[in-house]
Each structure stands twice: as structure tokens, then as C-alpha cells.
Amino acid sequence: MAGILFIISAPSGSGKSTLVSELRKQVSGVDFAISWTTRAPRGSEANGREYNFTSREEFQRMLDAGVFLEHAQVFGHYYGTARQSLEEARAAGHDLLLDIDVQGAAQVRAKLPEAVSIFIMPPNPKALRTRLRNRSRAEGVVIEAEVYRRLSEASKEIENYREYGYILVNDILDRAVAQLEAIVLAERFFRNGEVIAHRSHRVLEVAAACLQSNSQERLKPVLEAFGIFGNTGQQMFNFDDDSDEDDSDNDDDNDEVPQ
Length: 259
Description:
There is one protein chain. This protein has a domain at about 5-35 and about 95-230: 3-Layer(aba) Sandwich (Rossmann fold), CATH 3.40.50. The protein is about 40% helix and about 15% strand. It has helices spanning about 15-25, 55-65, 85-90, 100-110, 125-140, 145-160, 175-190, 200-210, 215-225, and strands at about 5-10, 30, 35, 50-55, 70-75, 75-80, 95-100, 115-120, 165-170. Strands 2-7-1-8-9 form a 5-stranded parallel β-sheet, with helices on both faces. A 4-stranded mixed β-sheet has the order 4-3-6-5. Strand 5 (about 70-75) and strand 6 (about 75-80) form a beta hairpin. The N and C termini lie far apart (about 40 Å).
């Protein structure tokens, strides 16, 4: 079986790490590329688990040596994916998931146009703000200026959605996980002829509905909420009641927020 490369991108706080974790529990033969970063570990993060942590000097040395398949600077820190991750997955006949931002995704698509690209969106700015605040609280501090900076950056990242083959809106976790699983199984079916064991027609329908070309009506309210529908260039975040009362969102999002 030839391994498939899946690129997954999302604004910080959209829940992609949670989705990837759930997917790997349900679908076998999917490897995950652990990125390298120059930022320091936070909380319970362990080297070699969430990230491979390194210094700026060592990162630059690796970059000069051609170690990275892609790299990007995000919020003042460098992140990169080693080519070795792809080589090892291919040698094992496994698929590989890359959890990378829009900068890195563009680099990978240019080098490997056969890669399957998936963009994950939060349902609206208010939900994203809640998730970012909750994660900041879990880390012990909430800096409002940082939360709003990430919201502004999210709008810019979402503008790149047209560059991705599939689009997910992560409003209901179980549904988003099922959609991501359907995409992986459908791509395996079409590319490798791998049989879908259960409800194959339904799986293919779910995956097809997530194609960017079939998602315009579904995406319209999300794009409008972030002020980017119709290419207005405006970022108009409408949070309605801006109090903390609804920030007890029980979303179990553990997606990484690079500082």
C-alpha cells in the first residue's frame, strides 16, 4: 500500500490536534509527524511527544543541511517538519499526517502536489475566542491582547481556504472526527483501492460533501462571521455578549497555541 500524505492546517485554537488524536485512535496505519520548534515547552509538554524542542542555532543548522520538508516562523518562533518523517512513513506503507500552518502547507504542496490538503475552521470568532481563553486559563494566564491577536491572525489564515482540497468546520467534535475519518478512508479507496469495511457509500458521501468545491454554502456563514466573505478585506468580529459567562465552553480542544 502506498502511503498518502495528508496536510492539515487550521487557525490556532480550531481543534486540529484533538481531531488528529481522535482520528489516529480509530484509523490504523496513520503516522503523525512531530514538528521541530524553537519555542520552549509549556505545561506538561514533553520533548519528542508534542514537539521536538531545539534551539534557534540548531534549527538553523538543520535548515541549512536540508533536513526540513517545510518550515515557517509563527508568532516569533520557528517550526519545521523533518523529511525523515515522510521517508519513514513511506517505508512502512503508512499514511502521514502533517499538522502545519498555511505557510508550511504551501511549501509542501509545491513540492508534493499529490498531497491531500485539509483545512479546519472554527465555526465563528466567538467560539474561537472561547477556546483560546479556555486554553490560556489552563496554562495559567489569559492575556486579552494575545487572544485578539490570534483572532486577527485566524481571519488571515482562513482566507487561504481555497488552497485546500477539503474543508471541515469544527463546530461539533464527533461530526468533525467522522468527517476527517471519511476523508482518509475515501482517499485510500480512490488512490489505493483499499476496501471500506463499513457503510462504504455513506463514507464516500461524507467525504465528498467536505470537498472545497462542494462546501461553498456551508462555509458562507463562517466566512461572513470572520468578515472575509466576498473578499471584503474587513475583519469584523461579532461576539454578541462579550462577557466571560459563556466562556465555560466544554470544548476539549487541546490544539497547540504557539506563542
